[in-house]
Design goal:
Elements: E1 3-7, E2 12-15, H1 18-27, H2 37-52, H3 61-70, E3 74-76
Antiparallel strand pairs: 1-2, 1-3
Helix pairs in contact: 1-3
Length: about 80
Amino acid sequence: MTTNYRLKDGDRVVASSPADFLHQLHTGSRFDSEGTDAEYMQRFANRLQELDGYLVSTESPETFLADLITHGFVSVE
């Protein structure tokens, strides 16, 4: 089963799990597609903290996605 996610910028990610969501976000990045998914998640969280002023968990793809949803960066369609 897949879930449709809408990012704050309007982009859409279709993923089968939080880990798949992270992978899709990483491989679809226009500016930061290097390294591992875990490294990307950390860089993404750091950028959000710098730009938007809130911290998202990088403990796991599950907590990362849950925090993105909580802060309104991602919505579930």
